[in-house]
Amino acid sequence: MALLITKRCINCDMCEPECPNQAIAMGAEIYEINPDLCTECVGHYDEPTCMKVCPIDNTIIHDPAHKESNEQLWDKFVLLHHSDKL
């Protein structure tokens, strides 16, 4: 499933540059994650880097509105990064 940045976000700018999929951008008030680009770092890292670098606990959570299996996240990773080779 994609990740979600909650209203606990303090706009510290730590997560956005860490995202390998460029899924994080500043929204109207806080950073937001584009669920179409978020693979939870599958294909890049063992765990989501945004969650790892966020200084506030439970600010970045699994988005219940965008549930995806590990296989679906891998498929998304391949489409995002290797579609020119398919």
From TrEMBL:
Domain 4Fe-4S ferredoxin-type: 1-29
Any one GO cellular component localisation term in the record: cytoplasm
Single Gene Ontology MF annotation: metal ion binding
Protein origin, superkingdom: Bacteria
Transmembrane stretches, start-end: none
InterPro entries: 4Fe4S_Fe-S-bd, 4Fe4S_Fe_S_CS, PSI_iron-sulfur_center, YfhL-like
One Pfam family recorded for the sequence: Fer4_7
Keyword ATP-binding set for record: no
Keywords (A to Z) from UniProt: 4Fe-4S, Electron transport, Iron, Iron-sulfur, Metal-binding, Repeat, Transport
NCBIfam families documented for this protein: di_4Fe-4S_YfhL (NF033683)
PANTHER family (UniProt xref): PHOTOSYSTEM I IRON-SULFUR CENTER, PHOTOSYSTEM I IRON-SULFUR CENTER-RELATED
Protein name: YfhL family 4Fe-4S dicluster ferredoxin
